[in-house]
Amino acid sequence: MSRTIEIPERSGTAFRLRKGEMLTVIDPRGEQVADLLAFNAGDVGEVISSGRTLDYAGRIYLTTGDKLYSNRSTVMLEIVEDTVGRHDFLLTPCSYDTFHHFYPRLEPHRGCFGNLAEALAPYGVIPDQIPIAFNCFMNVPVDGETGRLKVLPPISKAGDHISFRAAIDLIIGLTACSAPDSNGGSFKPIHYRIDSGK
Ligand SMILES: [Zn+2]
Q: DSSP assignment, residue 90?
């Protein structure tokens, strides 16, 4: 059995995920978002792409059976289990700048963007390479007529999870999100686990 690793509140990490391995992202307390990025371990110029993925899926809400594609149309991850069914793949990681924009009265935080940039730097990823993340558990309903977005608290409950299988060797970036509105107003840890998938 693999062990469960905790990402403390408002922080992030990066690690290798080999082809065939399964990554499970767990919301241990409920209503907590985790931003997920994936890079080709052999060439970090190849990166997860919201645009490609949503184009191929023909939908904006992804769940079990959906594949996450790279900017070069390679399948990077497949969602193999999902107890929530509501995640976001439209919005960029929260950042110092988005804190200024949305929370001008709060102390700014470097957010998921800063946490991902630091965690991914040892793998040769520079901040300008950080794209839209697959935001596990983030609840962003869209008005079908106007296209207007809302950021609501996640519908995830304690212990809910989403599992991905790696289709190629990857570098993964993963956070416990730092933005108040995305997380129901409080900051919680995220747990993850890697299984051999065999
Ligand atoms: Zn965030």
A: S
Of all residues in the chain, what percent carry a pLDDT higher than 90?
A: 89
Which domain, by its residues, includes 14? 5-195
How far is the centre of ligand 1, averaged over its atoms, from the C-alpha of 51 (Å)?
A: 19
Number of domains present in the structure of the chain? 1
Indicate the pLDDT class of residue 105, thresholds 50, 70 and 90: confident
- Say what the pTM is: 0.96
Measured distance between the N- and C-terminal CA atoms of the chain, rounded to whole angstroms: 12
Distance 198 CA to ligand 1 centre (A): 32
- Report whether 167 contacts 71 (CB < 8 A): no
pLDDT of 67-88, one tens digit each? 999 999 999 999 999 999 999 9
All residues at 6 or more sequence positions from 133 whose CB lies less than 8 Å from its CB, including other chains: 35, 36, 37, 48, 92, 93, 112, 116, 173
Measured in Å, residue 109 CA sits from the centre of ligand 1 at 10
Q: Are 113 and 93 in contact (CB under 8 A)?
A: yes
